[in-house]
Amino acid sequence: MQVSLDALVAGVRAGQLISFPTDTVPALAALPEQAGLIYAAKQRSRDKPLILMAASAEEIWSFVTGDDNEYKIWHKIAKKYWPGALTLVLPASASVPKAMISIPDGDLDTQKGQPTDCMTIGIRVPDCRIAQTILTQTGPLATTSANLSGQPPLQTMLEISAQFPDVLTLAATELKDEIRGIGVPSTVVKWTGKNWQILRQGAIKVEL
Questions:
Q1: 15-29, 47-61, 96-110, 143-157: lowest mean pLDDT where?
Q2: Cα separation of 199 and 4, whole Å?
Q3: 3-state DSSP call for residue 124?
Q4: What pLDDT was estimated at residue 176?
Q5: What pLDDT shows up at residue 173?
Q6: d(CA 115, CA 97)
Q7: Triad 59, 63, 65: Cα angle to 5°
Q8: pLDDT-based confidence at 118, cuts 50/70/90?
Q9: Buried b (16+ CB within 10 A) or exposed e, 50-62
Q10: pLDDT at residue 103, as a whole number
Q11: In the structure, what pLDDT confidence band is assigned to residue 41 with cuts at 50, 70 and 90?
């Protein structure tokens, strides 16, 4: 369903699924506590993580936890690559809703709602004007690429509307001056406790 920017923001605040352009591929998004909607719509396994996307780094640090030295390392790489096509996978804090934490196969403690010590969360700040506009008004959102699980990411709002008719997308009039994303997902790096591990080589090459 194509709507105005204001209606899109109001919709996600009310608990609906939305989609919007980013600097990489279009995002399917929901409030973090409504992340289950994303898993259901995509027919996505709960062991596959989502990304918490925000308009600024300052809004996102409360969702991760580490010591002072780790924060310095994380802030340094964020300052270098954000806003941009880099997702950092870091230890999740208690601020991350359980609905957004991926459930590893066979992890019975997690499935019973008892988080284990190794929970992580992917975080990103996109370099995209319209995404920034939306996220500034909504706060951080649970996001992933807009597609059915296992299929290539959809690239246009028209494709997304066709595959996900109940998802709110932006009307073409809202996108007339928007620069299209590069069509490649973000690069994903994970903090191991000692250094960075590249999980997915995506839109940018990262020097670690």
A1: 96-110
A2: 36
A3: strand
A4: 74
A5: 83
A6: 11
A7: 125
A8: low
A9: bbbbbbebebbbe
A10: 72
A11: very high
Q: Which amino acid is at 145?
A: S
Within 10 angstroms of residue 108's Cβ, the number of other Cβ atoms is 8
How big is the CA angle at 102 (ends 110 and 143), to the nearest 5 degrees?
150
The answer to whether the CB of 206 falls within 8 A of the CB of 189 is: yes
Q: Where are the alpha helices (DSSP H) in the chain?
A: 5-13, 36-42, 68-81, 108-111, 129-138, 157-163
d(CA 129, CA 179): 9
Calculate what percentage of the chain has a pLDDT beyond 70.
92
The pLDDT, as a whole number, for residue 91 is 95
What are the helix (H) ranges across 43-126? 68-81, 108-111
Give the C-alpha separation, 31 to 130, whole Å: 17
- Supply 106's token pair: 């066979």
Stretch 30-52: mean pLDDT: 95
| DSSP per-residue letters across 140-174 | SEEEEESS-TTSPPP-SHHHHHHH-TTSBEE-GGG
Q: What is the pLDDT of residue 111?
A: 42
State how far the Cα of 33 lies from the Cα of 150, in Å rounded to an integer. Answer: 24
Contact 193, 74 (CB under 8 A): no
